[in-house]
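Support reply, case 0932

Customer input (verbatim):
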Amino acid sequence: MTETDNRITGVRFDEQNLWLTLADGRSFSEPIKRHIRLEKATPEQRLQWELTDEDRGLNWPALWKPSDTGMVSVWDIEQDQLYNQALCTLQVVKWDTTLITPAQHELVALWRMEADINNGGFMQFLCNWGAPNLEVALQALQKLGATQAHECLQQMFAVIARFEDSPDVTSLDDLPALLTEAENDRLQELDEAFWDYPDRLPKLVVLHYGPAA
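Our regenerated output:
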């Protein structure tokens, strides 16, 4: 096991990036343009940062209301790196998930889940990637201990479970048009519950799949 310490010990900016130095010697960069308030801030304002989340996050109180996890979070950056590594490996094998490791497959499924539910909701996630990918995401959430996200995803699937053997469904793309108003309302409610991230998913992903795992 590799010992890591991802507490922030140094912060600097260049013209395009925010650079973080961590206690274990690693250095991460984050494009300034990913954070509109930092992008619009003056050089002096950018330097007025404060540490939070046991030195794993940064806030800029003059630019935005401070949050417990930070406007910039090491956990988010490390999670993005893990997702990108898994997706790059999948691309190399021409998107065949049988040719990557189980851990990489789980990371891909989690990335698909987050990207699609955050963008267009559960139905976009399910229609884009299918039930097998959903099952992998559920297994990964269970391994992570992300109990609330796991329960939320199960409840989402329960809304459309009645269509599992329906002759009206020849493709997952048929499902949105078959949902009742009440089912759409329920899915919207569950999407919003997912968006609240009650499980601190980035931290759980890094602790389970990261270099110290």
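We compared this against your earlier run and they match. Two observations from our side: DSSP finds nine helices and six strands in the chain. The mean pLDDT is 95. Please reopen the case if you see a mismatch on your end.
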